[in-house]
């Protein structure tokens, strides 16, 4: 299934910037960065549980947030992209404009 | 249906920062800001077409990107949130942890 991970990590302090780097670094292990704070991950429930557990441990729950969006298996028509494609986005079937 | 709008707007120049403000300002008219560059909009296809047209006109296609995710009508179990809830997120049915 396609799982979208979006995050806001407060970068006002060095600790925050460290958390941001950690979150991004962890997400890279599970999916493709499609925007600065947005990753698309094709994974099963077990992997999803795993990354969720890891990310929740990294963030400061009073400062940061993470959201997970479950787009299922038939995601090809559920995503549209406009503009620059900085991050070598090539998620199969995504409509590029 | 729930439409997720995520964007990356280059803020390296004053023009970029202006575009960022414009994109955010436009998105506010259509939905709820759930993270810095992530909006959740409950809208029909006509409204979606409208906001898409507006946003695509604002961005610089060589610098910025916008993505649309279509989560359909049964979105309540498709979103999970962890951590801080800065933006008064109260999208009905979203699981908060």
From TrEMBL, chains A, B:
NCBIfam families: cas2. InterPro entries: CRISPR_associated_Cas2, Virulence_VapD/CRISPR_Cas2. CRISPR (clustered regularly interspaced short palindromic repeat), is an adaptive immune system that provides protection against mobile genetic elements (viruses, transposable elements and conjugative plasmids). CRISPR clusters contain sequences complementary to antecedent mobile elements and target invading nucleic acids. CRISPR clusters are transcribed and processed into CRISPR RNA (crRNA). Functions as a ssRNA-specific endoribonuclease. Involved in the integration of spacer DNA into the CRISPR cassette. This is CRISPR-associated endoribonuclease Cas2. Keywords: Antiviral defense, Endonuclease, Hydrolase, Magnesium, Metal-binding, Nuclease. It holds the Pfam family CRISPR_Cas2. Gene3D superfamilies: 3.30.70.240. Its EC number is 3.1.-.-. CDD domains: Cas2_I_II_III (cd09725). SUPFAM superfamilies: TTP0101/SSO1404-like. The keyword Transmembrane does not apply. GO terms for biological process: defense response to virus; maintenance of CRISPR repeat elements. It comes from the Bacteria. The gene is cas2. Belongs to the CRISPR-associated endoribonuclease Cas2 protein family. Mg(2+) binds at residue 8. The keyword Coiled coil does not apply. Its cofactor is Mg(2+). One of its GO terms (molecular function) is metal ion binding. Homodimer, forms a heterotetramer with a Cas1 homodimer.
């Amino acid at each position: 299934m396609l799982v979208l991970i979006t995050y806001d990590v407060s970068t006002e302090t060095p600790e925050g910037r460290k958390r941001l780097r950690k979150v991004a670094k962890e997400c890279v292990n599970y999916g493709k960065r499609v925007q600065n704070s947005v990753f698309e991950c094709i994974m099963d429930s077990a992997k999803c549980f795993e990354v969720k557990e890891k990310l929740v441990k990294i963030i400061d729950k009073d400062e940061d947030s993470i959201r997970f969006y479950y787009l299922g298996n038939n995601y090809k028509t559920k995503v549209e992209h406009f503009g620059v494609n900085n991050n070598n986005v090539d998620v199969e079937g995504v409509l590029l404009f």
